Sequence to fold (235 residues):
Amino acid sequence: MATPHLQGEKGDYAPVVLMPGDPLRAKFIAENYLENVQCVNKIRGMLGYTGTYQGIPVSVQGSGMGQPSIGIYSYELYHFFDVQSIIRIGTAGGIAPEVKLRDIILGQASCTNSNFAMQYQLQGIYSPIASFKLLKSAFDTAQELNLPVHVGNLFSSDMFYDDSNSLEQWTKMHVLGIEMESGALYMNAMRAGKEALCICTVSDCPLKHEFTSAEERQTGFTDMMKLALETVKKL
Ligand code: HPA
Fold:
């Protein structure tokens, strides 16, 4: 059954979906890492593909930027396409002092300034967390591949251009990186009884005014892809 945003039928997506923000990244991954690839979504240009990685069925679906966008796609994948696990593969700004350009952050949990959790009408502040199964598998894989990995809190912000300059405050609570999607993804996974993990490569360190070049971002992305795909193999 197609949804308002995904044109596929049930069974068109694998149980595990990798989600880059950029749909052209989804295309790149499908064309360079997967075999037997089929394009399963083109609505709004938010490309999605299903194929196999070393014989294991895997899908890649663009999420767009921000929590409202990944909120829509992850909800539809979990609830209407029987997807069990979503691994976001994206970039983050490193904000903790020990986090360097091109390091990888595994988002154990996600702080947010978003109102996404309001819909659940909880009498307190919810703590969105990653799937321990996915987190453990990704951490073990990163160790095996000798990749520079940090595990901890992300700050999932609704603002890229933020007038409040709040990053120093988040670092006081030892938040490792800022990105814009993990909060809604983790909440949708928890509400659906499913699994999610956010893997981020550090594209910039805003507090140190450090930025990667396009070429460095590509290398970082390749390492993260390998990590995500090898993590899937272990599940
Ligand atoms: N802010 C928000 N999202 C990001 C950043 C950032 O500095 N870097 C990569 N994703």
